[in-house]
Amino acid sequence: MVRSACIPFLFLVFGLACPAPASEVSVHASVRPQRTTLGEALMLSIEVKGAQNTPAPSLNIDGFESRYLGPSTQMSLSNGQVTASVQHRYTLVPLKPGQFTLGPFPLEHQGRQYHTDPLTVTIAAAQPTPSPSGRPSSPVQQRPQAGSDQNTLSLELSVPRHEVYLHERVPVAVKLYIGAARVSDVQYPQFSTDGFSVEPFSEPTQRRQTLDGQTFTVLHFDTEVIPLRSGSLALGPASLQLNVLTRRRGGSPFSDPFFDRFFQNDFFSTFSSERRRLTLRSDPLTLSVQPLPEASRPDNFSGAVGAFELEVQATPQDLSVGDPITVQMRINGAGYLADAAAPTFVQTDGFRTYEPLAGKTQGSTKSFEQVLIPQDQTLDAVPAAQFSYFDPQARRYRTLESQPIALVVRPPKTATRKTVVTGHPDAPSARSQDEQEALGQDIVYIKDEPGSLVPHARPWYRSLGFLLWQPLPVLLFLGAWWYDQHRRRLRGDSRYARFTVAGKQARQSLTQAEHHLTQEEYPALYTALTRTLQAYVSAKFDLPSGGIDTQALRERGVSQACLEQIERVEEICERVRFAQGTTASMRDKSHETLSLVRQIIDQLERAHRQFQMRAA
């Protein structure tokens, strides 16, 4: 009962504390990797933030075969705001080489159209991966036996090219070829990464491929590595663990090949198959990591390698001399930004500059913030910012330059100091003095002591209403506890139940007796009075029903005068009910008897309380 009484209170508190989910909807698309070879699958993700019930958009991309993998929903709570999102994932298999633009993809939510930004991918022609001996490697060169000569498994580690630059992001693909074997519990691959920084593996993709007349199921594991030093670096070999399922021989009714046609799912495979742990290893690769060229290196180059874009914003753009301008610079793209420094301005004449602050680096995005203070009202723009990086695809350095941002610089708000010349300017005694500055318009010096600190407003938690509200939850809890105990005792203790309702039932019976008196139903009146008195005495003093035991009442502290009144009422009721009296005699005694019964009940109520106090 206590829990049921507190639940609405808790729901009210949490309902007021938790805000409604944010309603702003945004759509974003991403693809990995952005450069790959023909036959390699790409992972396309379309993320919708601010909603979870948006349907998956249908894709029809020229030059690609697409397959929908399913949605992935997410809900997060940050700073009291609930954010919901859904991510629709696709695999794209390129059908021809070239450079393609994916999107923009349309998406509809609550009758409103949204579009993603277009994405650019480059598909190169497939080339055989050279083996350490110089000959093209075949994915079926490893044939570990798994119960039959026809079951083939192999692991292949590949990169787009073997000559890369320092700090260049290099896509790495690990392919697991599964022939006629049955496998389970496939783990993520691992490989030696000495001299590399390795990104986590993305979710694997699956496709079928035919090689040398044999069909394989190919699992693609994609990641990226970043070489941290130049020279010849060994990558791999990659290793992968899995379980090979072989048919159980003898002792099982499912070991007969006849059942293989029917029991092909994983549940029956546990009865008809044996598991054998197997570790596959690929051939290692050697990457030739070239240092970044010294020729044509810009002075502001700080180590960024990849392909990037520069975004610059400044606020405010309408200000006075001496007011600060916050310049936010953001570098987006794909590549290495860990060592990248903030972009530099072309010229900062007329500005007071401060050191830039670097923000958080998220993948291939890094932000900076710098403060500029104009010192001259003739300035009309924030100068252009430049950022240099090395493009490994073009094998040269590139410099990005933003557009100047227009400014409106007004005179300073404080009055300029005036010079007052006294005497003749050419006289030797001529001197200049400054006018006295108005208080509060010149430099305000730091106080040695803060003085009296007075709050602007009284805190809400110190108000009288808040303090008076505090005992309310405790009182509600105590009231719910008392009510629960009272109900439990009424259901489990019949004596307590009779005692509790005795007074209420007596008042109801007396009200019914008054009704009989009004209707001049005198026999019914005296019957009701007799039953009311007997029922009250029996319940209140825990006596047997059916009569009034005056001796028991005397032992419980009832006075002699009250006992005499009880005997008088019983005598009157008996004489009226059983004697052949007239209606006139019944009418004369009815008011007197009703009043006498009321007095008796009041006296018994007081006598019972006194008896309980003495017993206590």
Written description of the protein model:
- The chain is of the alpha+beta class.
- 25% of the residues lie in helices and 35% in strands.
- It is built from 9 helices and 35 strands.
- A hairpin with a 4-residue loop joins strand 30 and strand 31.
- Helix 5 runs antiparallel to helix 6, helix 5 packs antiparallel against helix 9 and helix 6 packs antiparallel against helix 8.
- The two termini are 30 Å apart.
Q: Give the radius of gyration.
A: 47 Å
Into how many domains do the coordinates divide? 4
Query: What summary fits the major beta sheet?
Result: 5 strands, antiparallel
DSSP helical segment count? 9
What is the annotated CATH architecture of the largest domain?
Answer: Sandwich
Broad CATH class of the largest domain: Mainly Beta
Q: Give the overall shape.
A: elongated
CATH-defined fold name of the largest domain: Immunoglobulin-like
User: How many beta-strand segments?
Assistant: 35
Poorly predicted spans: 1-22, 129-151, 257-268, 418-425, 427-435
The quaternary organization reads as single chain
CA(first)-CA(last) distance: 30 Å
**Helix content range:** 10-25%
**Mean pLDDT rating:** 77
| Share of residues in strands | 25-35%
Instruction: Report the structural category.
Output: alpha+beta
